[in-house]
TrEMBL record:
Residues 1-25 form the signal peptide. Keywords: Signal. Residues 34-64 have a biased composition (Low complexity). Residues 25-68 are annotated as: Disordered. This is Lipoprotein.
Length: 143
């Protein structure tokens, strides 16, 4: 590797920063990119080489699909997994536990395409693409 020569630098505290994107040598392997920092004063020169950091592996940003649901509106296959869900009954014993199928997220209850109400344990079957609204119950996907 060639030696770095600094010439004509005048004045104390003069700083030079060089960033190398690669080195050449007689070796057959390509050298890893590195950062070279050169600090020079009238009386002293220091050279430090720092290897480039290795990037972290990419991780999936897709959240897992839920296998349980409480009160709310859910798109099956996006928000919750398809399958058979079971409830133990109403969360609040003074009211029933209900689910309603809607034609789309944001639809009103007057547009419902089906559903049921329970005052004890119950089941519901949901398929990918369906929109289900649940009220006053907790549902768990059955194996």
């Amino acid at each position: 590797m060639e030696k770095l020569k600094l010439a004509g630098m005048v004045g104390a505290g003069l700083l030079a920063l060089f960033v190398a994107t690669g080195c050449s040598s007689n070796d057959t392997e390509k050298a890893e990119p590195s950062t070279v920092t050169v600090i020079s004063t009238e009386t002293e020169t220091q050279v430090a080489t720092t290897p480039e950091p290795i990037p972290a592996p990419e991780t999936s940003s897709t959240p897992a699909i839920a296998t349980s649901m409480g009160s709310g509106t859910f798109v099956v296959g996006t928000d919750v997994a398809a399958g058979t869900y079971q409830t133990t009954g109403p969360s609040d014993s003074s009211a029933g536990c209900a689910y309603t199928f809607l034609p789309r997220r944001g639809a009103s209850l007057t547009e419902a395409t089906g559903g049921n109400t329970f005052f004890g344990p119950g089941y519901m079957e949901v398929a990918d693409g369906q929109v289900v609204q649940t009220i006053n119950c907790n549902w768990t996907l059955q194996p």
